[in-house]
Specification:
The structure is a single chain. With 364 residues, the protein is α+β, with helices and mostly antiparallel strands. The protein has a single domain (2-363), classed as Ribosomal Protein S5, domain 2, CATH 3.30.230. Helix content is 43%, strand content 23%. It is built from 12 helices and 12 strands. The strands form 2 sheets. Strands 1, 2, 3, 4, 5, 6, 7 and 12 form an 8-stranded mixed beta sheet that branches. A 4-stranded antiparallel beta sheet has the order 9-10-8-11. It comes from Methylobacterium brachiatum. Keywords: ATP-binding, Kinase, Nucleotide-binding, Transferase. InterPro entries: GHMP_Kinase-Related, GHMP_kinase_C_dom, GHMP_kinase_C_sf, GHMP_kinase_N_dom, HddA/FKP, Heptose_7-P_kinase, Ribosomal_Su5_D2-typ_SF. Residues 274-340 form the GHMP kinase C-terminal domain.
Length: 364
C-alpha cells in the first residue's frame, strides 16, 4: 500500500511537470525536466568512526544500508516569461533573480560551484520529514541535487565520484559538521561496509543470501520519537571530544561491532536476528555515553517501551537527540509495538538497492 501511494504521488508530481513542459514547448522554448530519487539511510554500526577527525589517525568503518524512503528532486528549465530566474519549493518557497539570493545553502553553493546558468524551477518532495530525522536526509538531498545538476549538464558521474563531490560540498564548501558515510549510502544504495583510512575509502557490499535479506526486510521498523532536531550541535560536541581522544575506547568498540555485524548477515546462521538486535541495543548504550546531547529521559523511556514490546533490539538513528529509532522485531509483534507507542508512528522499511538514480529526463 505504501509503495502504491508512493508511485501515485510520484506520478502526479511528474504529470504536473510534464504539463509545464508541454505548455513551454508549445510556446517554442527549449526546456529540460529531470527527476532524481535518492534514498535515506540507516547506519547499523561504526557511526562516529566515519569522521576524518578519527579515521585520519585510526582505522574507521561503518556498516549500514540505504532504505526505501526517498527524497525526490525535480528540476525544470524555465522559459523567459517568468519574473524570476529561480524558483525553489521545499519546506519553504523561494523566488530569486540570481543564485546568490538563494537561501537554501546546498542549492546555492552547488549552482555556484558548477557555474550553472540555467534558469530553474526546483521542487522537492520526501517520504519522511526531511529535517531532524537522523536518516541522513541532508546528505541524501546533497547527493540528489548533485545528481540533478550533473544531468542538467549532460554528465554521468560514477557513484564514488558522486559521493566524494557531496562530501566536498558539505565538509569543505559548507563547512558542515558531518561524517562521510551518509553520502556513500545515498549514492551507492544496498547494504555496504565502508572502510576509512587517511584519504582512502573502501566499499564492500555485503554478500547476503536472499533468505537473510527477506528476513531482515520483514523485521525492520522505524519508530518516530516525535522529536525533530538538528544534528549540528550534537555532532560538534562529539567531534570536539573525538579530537581529544577522550572517546577512543568507545569508538573502537563501535568499530569492532562492524565486523561482527557483517559476519552475522553474511553467514545467516540460526539466531542471527536475535544477536543483531542485541548488538543494536549494546551500540545504543555505548552511543549514549559519547555526548550528553545524544539522549534524554523521553528517548530512554521510548527505547525501553520498544524493547518491552518484544523487539530484538533498537538504536536511535543518526547523531542523537531525536528522529527515529531503528528496531528489529518479529513481524507479528509490529501491531503490538504500534499500539504501545501510539500516537508515534511505526514505519516498516526495507533495503533500497539502487542508490541515487536519475529516474526521468526529458529535453527538447
Amino acid at each position: 500500500m505504501a509503495d502504491r501511494q508512493h508511485i501515485e504521488n510520484l506520478g502526479r508530481f511528474i504529470n504536473i511537470k510534464l504539463r509545464d513542459i508541454k505548455t513551454n514547448c508549445e510556446n517554442g522554448f527549449a526546456v529540460m525536466l529531470t527527476v532524481t530519487r535518492t534514498p535515506l539511510r540507516v547506519s547499523l554500526f561504526g557511526g562516529g568512526t566515519d569522521y576524518p577527525e578519527y579515521f585520519e589517525r585510526e582505522p574507521g568503518a561503518v556498516v549500514g544500508m540505504a532504505i526505501d524512503k526517498y527524497i525526490i528532486i525535480a528540476a525544470l528549465g524555465l522559459v523567459g516569461c517568468q519574473d524570476y530566474n529561480y524558483r525553489l519549493s521545499y519546506s519553504k518557497l523561494e523566488h530569486c533573480q540570481n543564485v546568490l539570493e538563494i537561501e537554501h545553502p546546498v542549492v546555492r553553493e552547488v549552482l555556484r560551484h558548477f557555474d550553472v546558468s540555467h534558469r530553474l524551477d526546483v521542487s522537492v518532495i520526501s517520504d519522511l520529514p526531511a529535517a531532524g530525522s537522523g536518516l541522513g536526509s541532508s546528505s541524501a538531498f546533497t547527493v540528489g541535487f548533485l545528481r540533478t545538476v550533473y544531468a542538467l549538464l549532460g554528465q554521468k558521474p560514477t557513484k564514488i565520484e558522486l559521493s566524494k563531490k557531496a562530501i566536498e560540498v558539505e565538509r569543505d564548501i559548507l563547512c558542515e559538521n558531518v561524517g562521510v558515510q551518509d553520502q556513500l549510502h545515498a549514492a551507492f544504495g544496498g547494504i555496504n561496509r565502508f572502510d576509512f583510512s587517511g584519504s582512502a575509502i573502501r566499499i564492500s557490499p555485503l554478500q547476503m543470501t536472499s533468505a537473510t535479506l527477506r528476513q531482515l526486510n520483514a523485521s525492520m521498523v522505524l519508530v518516530h520519537t516525535g522529536i525533530a532536531r538538528r544534528a549540528t550541535t550534537t555532532v560538534a560536541a562529539q567531534i570536539a571530544v573525538t579530537r581529544t581522544r577522550a572517546i577512543d575506547r568507545e569508538l573502537s568498540e563501535l568499530y569492532r561491532l562492524v565486523a561482527e555485524c557483517v559476519s552475522l548477515l553474511e553467514c545467516g546462521t540460526p539466531g542471527w536476528l536475535t544477536q543483531l538486535g542485541e548488538m543494536l541495543s549494546a551500540s545504543w548504550k555505548i552511543k549514549r555515553t559519547l555526548s550528553p546531547d545524544v539522549s534524554n529521559t523521553v528517548l530512554d523511556d521510548l527505547f525501553e517501551t520498544i524493547v518491552a514490546s518484544g523487539a530484538y533490539g533498537a538504536k536511535l538513528c543518526g547523531a542523537g537527540g531525536g528522529g527515529f529509532f531503528l528496531a528489529l522485531i518479529d513481524p507479528e509483534r509490529i501491531p503490538g509495538l504500534a499500539e504501545r507507542v501510539a500516537p508515534l508512528s511505526v514505519i516498516p522499511i526495507s533495503v533500497d538497492v539502487d542508490g541515487s538514480t536519475l529516474i526521468y529526463c526529458q529535453s527538447r
